[in-house]
Amino acid sequence: MDNGINPYADPGDGIMDYDLSNPMDLFYTGQASFVREPLNYHLYTQPRPENLQHKYFVSDELREELQKRSESIYITPPSGLDLPEETQGYHSLVPLEPVVGERHNFSNWHSTVYKAINSMDGFPYVMRRIENFRLISESALSGIKAWSRIRHPNLVAVKEAFTTLAFNDNSLMVVYDYHPNSETLNEAHLKSKAPQFINGRLQTQNTRVAERTIWSYVIQIASVLKTVHEAGLAVRVVDDNKILVTSKNRLAS
């Protein structure tokens, strides 16, 4: 039955005169907030047929790990952190550690680690921000430039360093290569882990490290030390909180 009302008419013609500024008006309810749930990565790709379970296909575990890393690269920061939109060509900053409460120290300064995207190449990098750092002379960055020239598969490469006022203070930013979903050596092997349900029973997790894994770590760390010393630099402290486990038994310090 035709009642003379056009449901597709423009709201400004008087037929459907809704107040668009009122968030409670029809069709314009306030924006809802959602709690982000962990993704079920196995939903993205169906299991392989039994007759194709051979070495030419990526394992389910490796596929899940790659999807987790991809999610980490493109994750966006939560609202309300008041982070700068851009600093020295880096944008989309996301904190990789708490920015309030218990803070990590870098020597005598507070520091925070962020993930950011470089506007020039589009790649993600890690930026360590050292707060309230006053640079006396540009020559003070010569040490960082020396580290940026070192290339080693078990060393987190340094890209560059610069100062910025984008955080409303004098901050020193040191940019490194990004290894998504990495853990520190302490988190991976030394820190006590919460019990997990295994076969329906709550069991403590085994933190014992296999001997072959320990030897692999020793060789990788020794190789980095040798390369650094050959470059005329020094590693004064080997800290388990500064060494990353980037993948299975693979270190980057």
From TrEMBL:
SUPFAM superfamilies: Protein kinase-like (PK-like). The keyword Ligase does not apply. GO terms for biological process: mRNA processing; nuclear-transcribed mRNA poly(A) tail shortening. It comes from Hermanssonia centrifuga. This is Protein kinase domain-containing protein. Keywords: Coiled coil, mRNA processing. One of its GO terms (cellular component) is PAN complex. GO terms for molecular function: ATP binding; poly(A) binding; protein kinase activity. Residues 99-253 form the Protein kinase domain.
